[in-house]
Design brief:
410 residues, 5-stranded mixed sheet, alpha/beta
């Protein structure tokens, strides 16, 4: 449903709506808690803008999500090669998973999730009011959530997210009510967020603090003081937490927001473990050559065949072009010697270069990835699949090669 179609507001548009009025540093913040899939929330936003006078409008959006709402076609300009080079494949894949969840909601309820945020931005722009984007970048939130859980829990997280992509059943009323009271990100990860305090902290609590700090920061920069009023539109799940932070937060808002906006430090131990395994394997190969040249040659051959062969198998399973398969076979064995782009990245770049995604692939991407066959039919999805399967093949190949090499020395 287009927002322009909502022409008449019911007189009861604000009845029962969760609204809090918070005064901080002389500024009155009118905080409206919304449901991300509710026409009522859209009407409540519009009613507040019509009935009261505001000096600014703040919304629970980051720059990238706001840009996506303003220009839904922008993602079609995505440079897939740049995404692979910059190591953002995982973030793009996670964003696609979230978008399929949102699409199911839109198809089921006839209104795009976040329509009330768009109504607030449009209403502010129409009245020539500054629009403040106060949420943390979604990529940073996803990275912090990912790093907040243990290594093994990440596999369950990935499996759950992928299963949600292929879900065919309508989202039941229980989940819809939870979404109306909660947050889009929390709902998408609901099964895991409810069981993991670190995950909940990354998805919800940190953003409560971040948004409160951003409100204070914007107000300071705008020189707002006594008599100024700001409309704040956030998901109802943030109403209590963000409200408490806005009332009582004492830290410098700029420093607080900057600290919470930091990408999490990368864990070093998985790299050290992987490096240790590779060093052990190559030490075994060197020892094999020391014992017997033929034995060493066999060990080196096993390394190439297992790492290159299983990497190439990953590209084949992804439906990769023959040159992508060759690239995977070459990149697999030399992975320890080039710590930059992974073997899956090299194969995926070859795939994207030879089979350049078409506009139609971007247009149908969200629909295609909800079907198993779509991952092979859509060129964007197939390139992402190539990346993940080749990387997986390389890792399995390394451990398989190590096992056979060590076995040959015993």
């Amino acid at each position: 449903m287009s927002l322009t179609e909502i022409t008449e507001l019911p007189s009861s548009a604000l009845d029962g709506q969760p609204i809090e009025r918070i005064e901080r540093d002389g500024v009155e913040y009118v905080v409206l808690g919304t449901a991300h899939v509710s026409l009522t929330s859209v009407q409540a936003v519009q009613a507040l803008l019509e009935q009261e006078t505001f000096d600014a409008v703040a919304v629970e959006l980051c720059d990238s999500r706001a840009q996506g709402m303003r220009d839904p076609e922008a993602f079609k300009q995505m440079d897939l090669l740049q995404v692979i080079r910059q190591g953002k494949v995982g973030m793009v894949a996670a964003s696609l998973v979230l978008s399929t969840f949102q699409k199911r909601l839109a198809d089921q309820h006839g209104i795009e999730p976040g329509a009330e945020m768009k109504a607030a931005m449009e209403g502010g722009a129409t009245r020539n009011l500054p629009v403040w984007l106060i949420d943390r970048e979604v990529g940073t939130t996803l990275r912090r959530a990912w790093h907040s859980v243990g290594f093994w829990k990440r596999f369950g997280l990935m499996a759950g997210l992928m299963a949600s992509v292929f879900e065919r059943e309508a989202i039941d009323e229980k989940e819809i009510e939870k979404l109306k009271e909660g947050d889009m990100l929390e709902s998408a990860f609901s099964e895991f967020a409810s069981e993991s305090a670190p995950l909940y902290r990354s998805l919800i609590a940190e953003r409560d603090s971040f948004m409160a700090a951003r409100l204070r920061e914007h107000a300071e920069r705008a020189g707002f003081g006594s008599g100024r009023k700001v409309l704040v539109v956030i998901g109802a799940g943030h109403l209590k937490g963000m409200g408490e932070q806005l009332r009582h937060q004492q830290e410098d808002p700029i420093l607080t927001a900057a600290e919470l906006a930091k990408a999490p430090p990368k864990s070093r131990w998985p790299k050290w473990v992987a490096l240790g395994v590779v060093i052990a394997i190559f030490a075994a190969i060197a020892f094999a050559f020391h014992k017997n040249t033929a034995l060493g040659a066999d060990a080196l051959r096993n390394w190439v065949l297992f790492t290159g062969g299983l990497s190439a198998l990953g590209a084949i399973l992804a439906g990769g072009h023959p040159l992508s398969v060759v690239a995977a076979f070459v990149a697999g064995p030399i992975k320890p010697f080039r710590p930059g782009i992974p073997s899956g990245g090299i194969s995926a770049m070859v795939e994207a270069w030879i089979r350049k995604p078409r506009v139609a692939d971007f247009e149908s991407l969200r629909d295609d990835i909800t079907h198993w066959s779509g991952w092979w039919k859509n060129r964007v999805a197939r390139t992402l699949l190539n990346f993940f399967l080749v990387c997986t093949g390389t890792i399995v190949g390394e451990y398989s090669a190590g096992f056979h090499i060590l076995k040959s020395l015993m």
